[in-house]
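Figure 3 (text version): structure tokens given as input.
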């Protein structure tokens, strides 16, 4: 989001996914941790794949963060094979990220206003510090993939119902 060498569209997607991740979710608490972690983690990777083109600056960005990009294509292919239509649902969320608002501010403000950008950065740090999910909790809550997939399907249905779309 702060890399001025990247195209504006890529930076907007980065800000959008950051807003999506730090924004409170409406899922019921019993499934919220596993679902929110999963859709946050997968959506972040989808954005990483979609946001960057093939320019020299974008390639340089990938080279700066090899841990994020080395296995990205294979990881997303595995998610698609496991998640099926749920990957399409998450993939479609990418298009709406640029329209998000957070704390009353539209996404462009987080790119164009230093104070707003600092606020989002600080909220991201707090979120990362206080995120209630770690490897032990995930392992305890998720013994099989169907647990996550069923919860994601319920979340997708809840979102569709809220938009007036029949599931």
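Below: residues designed for each position.
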């Amino acid at each position: 989001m702060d890399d001025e060498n990247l195209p504006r569209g890529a930076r907007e997607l980065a800000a959008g996914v950051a807003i999506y991740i730090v924004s409170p979710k409406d899922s019921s608490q019993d499934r919220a941790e596993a679902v929110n972690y999963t859709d946050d983690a997968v959506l972040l990777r989808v954005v990483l794949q979609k946001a960057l083109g093939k320019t020299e600056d974008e390639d340089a960005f990938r080279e700066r963060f090899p841990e994020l990009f080395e296995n990205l294509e294979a990881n997303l292919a595995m998610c698609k094979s496991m998640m099926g239509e749920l990957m399409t649902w998450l993939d479609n969320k990418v298009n709406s990220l640029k329209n998000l608002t957070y704390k009353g501010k539209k996404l462009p403000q987080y790119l164009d206003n230093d104070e707003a950008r600092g606020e989002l950065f600080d909220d991201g740090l707090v979120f990362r510090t206080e995120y209630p999910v770690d490897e032990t909790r995930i392992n305890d809550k998720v013994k099989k993939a169907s647990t996550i997939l069923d919860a994601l399907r319920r979340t997708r249905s809840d979102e569709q119902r809220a938009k007036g779309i029949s599931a």
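The chain has a mean pLDDT of 85.
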